[in-house]
Design goal:
about 210 residues; alpha/beta; Rossmann fold; seven-stranded mixed beta sheet; 7 helices; about 40% helix; cytoplasm; nucleus; SAM-dependent_MTases_sf; methyltransferase; Efm4/METTL10
């Protein structure tokens, strides 16, 4: 998968998707495809996570994951993105779907506002990947991401991450402080040169 990295790239991409949505009502790309959203929702359902649990979608983009969560009965949903165009787009998608209870905010997750706290579930589909690829102090930004995650997620809360840049072992290392692995979720496998591997890693962590 190939995520644009710089904020100007994100903004430009979401401005295009916003225009497309206004023109033809298409919300745009679904990061990692629909099966990644189904995988997340299935896990929440299997764990009997209460429908009123507070959920934060980190880097919500077009907000489609939140729409699917709302359709599955979840009622306490918040999406953040540092691209104002992304939040504009997700607001329009929310409006079209009639999901007025979804909260959307422009936020830089590396510098979250104080009211962004106390979430029982945080979900990331590609945002940590994008931060990891940032050419400007990627190591420092990854550390700040973990610190931010610790501040917004309640103790014993769940963190579900989907990544195409990091292996399970690498993610375990990145989130070793403050988190423990609960489960690796099955993802599609590929075969290349006779070796089988996963192009996507999906893990569930619990905040210590």
């Amino acid at each position: 998968c190939n995520n644009p990295v710089l904020s100007s790239s994100w903004d430009a991409a979401y401005e295009r998707e916003l225009q497309t949505f206004q023109d033809i009502g298409d919300a745009g790309e679904i990061w990692f495809g629909e099966e990644s959203m189904a995988r997340i929702i299935r896990w929440l359902e299997e764990q009997n996570v209460p429908l009123d649990s507070s959920v934060l979608d980190i880097g919500t983009g077009n907000g489609v994951l939140l729409i699917e969560l709302a359709k599955s009965g979840y009622t306490n949903l918040t999406g953040i993105d540092y691209s104002p165009s992304a939040i504009q787009l997700s607001e329009k998608v929310r409006e079209k779907e009639g999901m007025s209870n979804i909260k959307l905010k422009v936020e830089d997750f590396l510098d979250p506002s104080p009211e962004l706290s106390g979430f029982e579930i945080c979900i990331d589909k590609g945002t940590f990947d994008a931060i990891s690829l940032n050419p400007d102090n990627a190591v420092g930004k990854r550390k700040q991401y973990v610190k931010s995650l610790c501040s917004v997620l309640k103790s014993e809360g769940f963190f579900l991450i989907t990544s195409c840049n990091w292996t399970k072992e690498e993610l375990l290392d990145q989130f070793r402080e403050g988190f423990e692995i609960l489960e690796e979720l099955p993802t599609p496998k590929f075969c290349f040169g006779g070796r089988i591997g996963n192009s996507v890693t999906a893990l569930v962590f619990q905040r210590k």
